[in-house]
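User: Fold both of these, please.

Assistant: Here is the first one.
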Amino acid sequence: MQPEDNITKEETIRDKAPDISDVGLDTTEDGALSQEDTPKSGNKTREALRGYFSATRISYIAIFTALAFVFYLLDFSILPAVPFLEIDFSNTFVMIAGFSLGPVAGVIVGVLKEIIHALTMGTTMFVGELANILFILPYVLIPSIIYKKRKGIKTVIVSLVLGSVAQVIVSIPVNWLLNFPAYMKAFMDYSWKEGMDFFLEVWYWALLFNVIKSVLISAAVLLIYKPLSRLIKTTNARFEKLAQNRAKKASGTARPSPEGQTFANTAGMAYNFSMTVKVSFSDEQTIELGKAYAARLKAGDVVLLDGEMGAGKTVFAKGVAAGLGIKDEITSPTYAYMNDYDGRLYHYDCYRLKSGAEAEGLGLTDYFYGQGVCLIEWSGNISSVLPPNCKKVTIRKSGENTRTIEYE
């Protein structure tokens, strides 16, 4: 974007500066920026489902399900008062699936391992497995949904505590109305009511059991997530390399969708120790990935958009703007330093800035604490004044028209 004649860079910024206290921004209930033209047709739904259930995501769901089932078989009881309540560590992998693949995938893994157990090892006519599914839902959904919105190990710990508390609370009516009566009827010839009455006599033991089980499983999750996330990241890199090799061989033919190319489409990867990686084969696909990324953003986010010259940072920015519902043409603000799009998006280009102090002197840092999204190219030049907890997107050239896009 070229500056108008006789306008200094200071005047350019000053004229654009908003009154931060008055900036308004529509958000959805979960804090994400609203999008005006969200597709609602059946075709779009089918496309979204195909994108979500990619071959790689399905493969990882199968792997986590197999691991969960194996550990399901290694159960043991700890409280003599309720010996039929047994601890196993299968939900460790259900939870890891929820964190790395998303809440829906986590629930699918939990349900599948219970179905397999019921068909192969079940002795309670699926009643015990149904009770376990009811336990799984709050324990997996609460942490994985919270983690999807806000990453970080502190979030993981807090969300696991919340999920554990929810599971313990749910266990009381489920054990009273379903689990205990079904077990007593199947193995001790009790009536359903007698089974419910028996629970009322030992409910505190059942409660203690579920507290211990939740604590042990949560501790196991925290212990194994590092090596497991590294394994997933290594596997993901291999999938990405294979995708790029296939793209080179398919030169001149229809390019595959970026949604189906890498395991990055399947997961935000676990615990900030790995990145989501997507592959684009054209500017159009980069724009679409930018649109999808915009759905992750909320008011006040600062995004560091890194990449070498010509990597496609501004192209990605166009997609982000479109995803935020901005209709204006998006151009690189190389000479203006920052373009303001109605207070909803502040698009920076800090290539010509020499320091954070210079950015601060121009008033650029004022926008970091507003209600719009800040998208900053060449952020390293002003690293000394960047706010904490910035999001980061890195774009790399991996071929003539191929770009690898990474983000947390």
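And the second sequence with its predicted structure:
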Amino acid sequence: MVFIILGMIFGSFASVLVTRNPSKESIVFPPSHCDHCMYRLSWYDNIPVFSFIYLKGKCRNCQRSISPIYPILEIGSAIFFYMIGSKDGFILIDASFLLFFVMAINDFYDGEFSTTHLVAFAFFQISYILLYHLSFSPIPFLFFLLLVFNQFTGEKYIGNGDLWILLILSFHPVLWFISYFILLGLIGALLLPYFIFKNIRKIHYLPILFSAFICNTLFYEKFLYFLFNY
């Protein structure tokens, strides 16, 4: 129960980052308010999930709809916190999850995300790897070379932000990263018919990278056993 409550609280904070980051609005001031009428919310209008249900998804003042991103993120975060709660370094994993989610949403809607969030994500991920899964492989070096190549040539098939995420994740143990890349390919293959049908030429990769990260974080051991009977 504690992890569920913590997940809702962290999810509520992450939703503030999602909605305020594109407009460069401070996360401190102004306090929580309706995005339509700027009505300042009371504490009882700010209880994760429950306030949304009680208000029937509408602002108490102007009665316009509240974005569903708030309860979706709060519920999703609560579920993730609950499932990760027994793992070593769960605080670092949870912080990485929330930052990754915020960046993925911002990338999906705006095509960009905050460098501050990327640096914070790198800090939590590298800290987790150093404390619990320290290993050495040539994969980070390869992604670093790709990042340099991408930066100094005109051919950019994938954004530098996406490459930075892959570079950070490549510091995980080799088997973890192989599992991640396989999941990444599977998710991409499932989405490919949709992209072709909708004639989508510009693909935002970060939501796909995030989806694979969630799947691998939650089911890495089971997936590895399924693949290699390891």
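The chain is about 65% helix and 0% strand.
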